Amino acid sequence: MNKPPPSICLYFQVHQPYRLRDLRCSEIGQPDLQYFDEEKNRAIFRKVAEKCYLPANALMQELVETYPDFHVAYSLSGIFLEQCEAYGPDVLESFQRLAATGKVEFLAETYYHSLSSLKSLKEFVQQVTAHVARIEELFGQQPHVFRNTELIYSNELAHVARLMGFQGVLAEGADHLLKNQTPNDPFVPPAFTLPTTVRNAVRQHRPYAKAARNIAVLLKNYRLSDDVAFRFSDKSWIGYPLHADRFTDWLVNSGGHSVNLFMDYETFGEHQWADTGIFEFLRALPAIWQKRGIRAVTPSQAIRTARGWERQVYDAHAHISWADTERDLSAWQENHIQRAALDALFALEELVRKVNDPELTRRWRLLQTSDHFYYMCTKYWSDGDVHKYFSPYESPYEAYRRFSHALCDLHHRLTIHP
Amino acid sequence: MSIHSLMFGWEYPPLHLGGLGVACHGLVQGLLKNGVRVTLVLPHSHDSSGEEYDVLSPTEKHLESVRVRSMLSPYITHDQYLRKITAVSKEMQQVYGSDLPQAVAYFTEASVELTKDVNADVVHCHDWMTYGAGMRAAAYHHRPLVTHIHATELDRTHFHPNQWIYDMERHGFEAADCIIAVSNYTKGILTQHYGIAADKIRVVHNGSDDEIINQARYSLDANLRRNDCPMVLFLGRMTVQKGPLHFLEMAAKVHGMRPDVQFVMAGEGGMLDEAINRACDLGLKDCTVFTGKVNSREAKKLYQQADCFVMPSLSEPFGLVALEAIANGTPVVVSKQSGVSEVVAHGFTVDFWDTDKMADCVLTILRENPLALQLKSEAPKGLRHMRWEHQARNVRSIYSDLITS
Questions:
Q1: What is the ipTM of this complex?
Q2: Which one of A113, A207, A263, B379 is CB 3.0 to 4.6 Å from A229, fit for a cystine?
Q3: Is B345 touching A (CB cutoff 8 A)?
């Protein structure tokens, strides 16, 4: 007897950072100093809106309305939503139209797309709470599945998410943790109790009144995700050109409960340009899936339908993430300047809370966005790899120069605050 | 396959005076390590007293050096040559040539004559003064010609060339079977300003072997660094190409924010007086030191004392000084108009005219310890891939391609 095909769980990350201005030492402490490059941020937002967000959302709208078994999930960072309001109400409206279909799930993350989970539990939980509130406000639904910045994940983080009230959390299906298991099966974190101080801190600031009893872990199938996100237009790749029916064969053959395809939304039209055929590829998938009885489900649906399955333990003592081949924190916390920058930022936390000035607190939080640290990465810089591709600055040291000036300025303002 | 190169090059300089001699020395050593036999022709103005400067391991069996009497030195101008030649006897003037064109013609004649019996596989020459000799020798022996370009007349004069020198250069490029440029930056100048086809030019970045810096032994000067004051260093000839005035403009901006910073400008040249006057005009009299010419040992000491090295060159084909600074653990800020900026991954690059940003990079390095530490520790690691032995391997493969084609 043939096994039923796995379902497909599609989640797209939607995020844009605020890029820093070419700040100078001589500006530190000046009134009304702007940290961020308004013009550049607007230009990039509009460019990506035209190439990706608007056409991709229009296509998704059509697909979810046409195919009853086709669902998708998004995680929209809080600062992406702010940029929508400032630079692209049309983009926000198109996401709201998707939400209105009832077939789209919105996930929770840190409002500032931050690295706060690594440094301050209180700050982390507060940012998740702020994000949950914003999603509810804009899309009229409460997120029940959490995904941390860049899929940064650990056992402890899974339990913190559970204590916050989430029923599911997303993570990278890292080879060294899976040890030949398929990422398509349902997983749970190892059971353990967090220290009282941690539990209390979460309880004090969490978005929901109650902790969840259990939390499921959905693991990204990185091979099949990256076939689309990274390799789709790579002519030297053996799978090129990738067609929807062949890709569907691969999905079905990979078996298990659900194939979790997690990727940046910018894959559609921005990382893979429209002329690669990426939109036609996306458009063709649901029709083939419907014909072959494959459902595309949201993370919450994937968790619900897995209830009858045996759950494997996913044991992540050390942090993992979806970045680079290392799948660890090294994209943001590898070299000296990256670590110094994040340490110096969180060294200000106490002062920020004491001063309690909304504008300064906001500046502090905007500097927590993971991208600032990603741009300082020197791992493969000279090879011209993805860090270079994604960086708006000409070098990791330029990223640090701008960031350190902003931090100096913030420190100055906090110190002189009456 | 054993390859024999007939090379018209330059001596390792006894004083720190630009990179041509240093680069030739490094390349020859690197070629020898790659099993290439080299006959090296050098202009030489001393009869026998010069032997002590010879650091080209004369016992090396694959190296033969031929010394040609000449008062040519790299980067010498018409006027400088005239001043030099009028200081020697009338009799010797006739040997060396009474002006620069004549000196080049004599050198060409003599060096081709002295190497008539050399049976080399390839002829390789370095910068315009040796191109005549290279072309003649290649034609005489019917061998492929490699012209190596370390600095063009356009770099030296900030695009106001002496037409005669420019023509000599272009003639050399056109006659070459292959041109080796020290950077993509220089390759760009050749394609845009000399009309040379890009596919004829191969880029081989200069190498960096720290032992070269260590070899010279000279007496040590006093410590130029004041107690706890940060020090920012310029090291190079005081000529328009090296941007000494841009350095001072940057210094004035740094001084405005950080009056405790000291500036050291090492090197001599035609613009020294102008630079001193400018420093005074900018109010930098008390925080700027002009050291004059420095030898290799002193240069090393300066690099090590400096908190930041700035190379604001207007047009720098390579910029070996930046690699020397890096090798000595000094954070660098280098001009984007340079070849070395193509290979420095751990440092700042700025446009030479943007002295605001240059100053800001310096101030950031001085303020941010983690940054300075990372630049100190990471930048030298990059030099491991830039040893001459490795770079010379690329030159050897260029030779092979030419010989077999």
A1: 0.91
A2: A263
A3: yes
